[in-house]
């Protein structure tokens, strides 16, 4: 992925700006702090779906709309984010965060699945955009608390083994494919065991049947047992009838909520039309009580400002909620249909029980079904099925062995590279802790001060370099800041050189923020795209020009 342009528009304060980027290294700088470097990088990754924990003070992203122009595999796309809604250039209508995350993974040809924190099984869950972006982004506020890549977003707290599972997937050493094949192998082996049991039972029955020359004598059903069965059916009928009634009530409640939402949308659409007309005073009719309202009264009732973007956002949010309610209604309709079918079957069974069957008739029917030639046919089919499944189990076992071998070799190769990079960095950093941190050891880096900061930086640099070289998909790297605490003057040039040596030198597009006085520590500054920021970051001059460019993509 390459990010070509970012537009930020604050529709409450009516200010905006756009920023154009190089496909290589983009250095975002300013003459001092608090100019907007962090706000710019955080906004860029927020627009990509990253759930930022903390924006700078005064940066009200909730009244802003962001547009990214990106290239993914040589195809151009536009992404607009407005709070929890996304609009992409190749899809109609608004997407929620889940839908946008699916869109992003599909474009990147990835399918990351992680284990949930509270899950009692090994079942894997789909992820959001934050997890896809995590190894590529360092946050000024949340990346330096002792755990690398772990606490940059609240979204990551849903999963049990972060960041290891994420990095394993990105580096192509994930257990996901192995787990899936082992699960498939286990399920097929269960089928083999079940079929074997059936074959043994049928063989035993067939031998007994072959020896049998006369029909078995029997007596009629016990009348008391028949009464018990009949009463059980009555209880089942009562339970199913009650379930049908409850689900119909739930469905009516959902429909009522949907109707209220739709009525509000009618009024919102009228407000949108009113905004496009030239006259000031317009009467609107309340869709709930049918009283006449002025435009201002209608906006007050809906708790809105007379702002087209905010009104449109509420209209689309209502529509997304109606889609969710409609899914709930359709699910309940399906469940009611299934329960009604069960009810009909139970009624029929109740009627059948009322006629007394003799055990002799039952034995006659079973005798016909279990005739000797039918036994043999069933056993033969089961044996064929068992052989086929056993061959599949063998093939899966071979594939698992090969995957584990490849995984082991790739992990060993990446681990070797990890140690080489970390050792090289430590020649200049001189951290006492780095030699103790093994590959894929994501425990807390304890301590404080300059040594702790250098240790974390060295680990980030190392893993980002590994992601650049071995990653199975490409996202631009974003380094909001790589120093959390004050460091001495002698250390500053070293840290910049290491970032330049191992991060800025890779082929990924990179965004790197630093104050202008530190630019002297970058030896290849003439090859970088320098973006010099000044206050204010957003201005009124650009607002009207940018407004049409952040409208919903058609």
TrEMBL record:
Keywords assigned: Coiled coil
Segments forming a coiled coil: 315-349, 379-417
Protein name: Uncharacterized protein
Protein source organism: Bacillus vallismortis
